[in-house]
């Protein structure tokens, strides 16, 4: 469950809101064990005016901003129970906020693009369906860039940071570990050592605010390449770090595993 947030919200509201990094896991996580943690987190959050969502499942050459006033629900997966394909998250879009996001990214020299038709992939709607189940908060999706690694995505977060003062919640969604070739099918399975070692290294680097080590994690963290054969599921974390700024406080609010090797950690940065 969320730790420390309820006490924080009992005080007068801070000038800047938090940013989130969520490990969304498989689409079945929408009703899985971690869903309860997301619902508990939702109870501790100040209701935002809108959400800017960065998902590991949207990657373009350039950072791209979704501008649809009514983004559709994307079922970007196969081989799962039929019931998952019936789920719909009809949150409205926010073209005006999308303009603001593009302007901030342009000011930072990031050459953003716009997409008038982009919907919400499962990296967005799986956690949001638990965080904000009424689907009445506008959502603007933002892509990752295939052309940049951690440094570029930290810059994306820094560009978006002013939104925190406008009660816009920045939600980034990926996975603390993501090696689909190493999944362990079946029920509850203890994670292998390489997963827990990488997970603990990331956690310590976050709470110690070692941004340089995190940016260089592929060379510095144990089992980094095994934990992330490709980087897209960790890149949203760097957007969250950039948006949090230099004085970030990392609060681990969810912890667990699915399929043995997918670490489901979530963090609030405030």
CATH architecture: 3-Layer(aba) Sandwich
Please give the CATH class. Alpha Beta
How many helices does DSSP assign? 10
Report mean pLDDT, rounded to a whole number: 93
* Strand segment count: 10
- How does the major sheet shape up? 6 strands, mixed
Task: Report, as a whole number of angstroms, the end-to-end distance.
Answer: 17 Å
Q: Rg from C-alpha positions?
A: 17 Å
Number of domains: 1
The percentage of residues in β strands lies in 15-25%
CATH homologous superfamily assignment? LigB-like
Give the CATH topology. Answer: Protocatechuate 4,5-dioxygenase, Chain B
Strand order of the largest sheet: 5-2-6-1-10-7
- Which ranges are low-confidence, i.e. pLDDT below 50, for 5 or more consecutive residues? 1-14
Helix-strand string = HEHEEHEHEHEHHHHHEEEE
Portion of residues within helices = 25-40%
* Structural category: alpha/beta
The global form is globular
């Amino acid at each position: 469950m969320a730790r420390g947030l309820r006490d924080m919200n009992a005080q007068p509201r801070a000038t800047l809101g938090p940013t989130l990094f969520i490990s969304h896991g498989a689409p079945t996580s929408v009703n899985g064990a971690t869903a309860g943690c997301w619902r508990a987190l939702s109870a501790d959050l100040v209701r935002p005016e809108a959400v800017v969502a960065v998902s590991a499942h949207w990657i373009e050459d350039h950072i791209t901003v979704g501008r649809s006033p009514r983004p559709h629900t994307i079922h970007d997966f196969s081989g799962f129970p039929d019931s998952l394909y019936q789920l719909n998250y009809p949150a409205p879009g926010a073209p005006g906020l999308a303009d603001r996001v593009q302007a901030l990214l342009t000011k930072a020299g990031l050459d953003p693009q716009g997409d008038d038709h982009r919907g919400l992939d499962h990296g967005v709607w799986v956690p949001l369906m638990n965080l904000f189940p009424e689907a009445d908060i506008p959502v603007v999706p933002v892509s990752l860039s295939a052309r940049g690694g951690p440094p570029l995505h930290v810059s994306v977060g820094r560009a978006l940071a002013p939104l925190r003062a406008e009660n816009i919640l920045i939600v980034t969604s990926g996975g603390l570990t993501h090696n689909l070739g190493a999944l362990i099918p079946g029920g509850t399975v203890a994670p292998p050592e390489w997963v827990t070692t990488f997970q603990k290294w990331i956690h310590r680097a976050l709470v110690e605010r070692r941004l340089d080590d995190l940016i260089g994690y592929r060379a510095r963290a144990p089992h980094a390449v095994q934990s992330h054969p490709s980087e897209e599921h960790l890149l949203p974390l760097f957007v969250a770090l950039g948006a949090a700024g230099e004085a970030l406080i990392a609060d681990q609010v969810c912890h667990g595993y699915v399929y043995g090797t997918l670490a489901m950690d979530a963090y609030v940065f405030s």
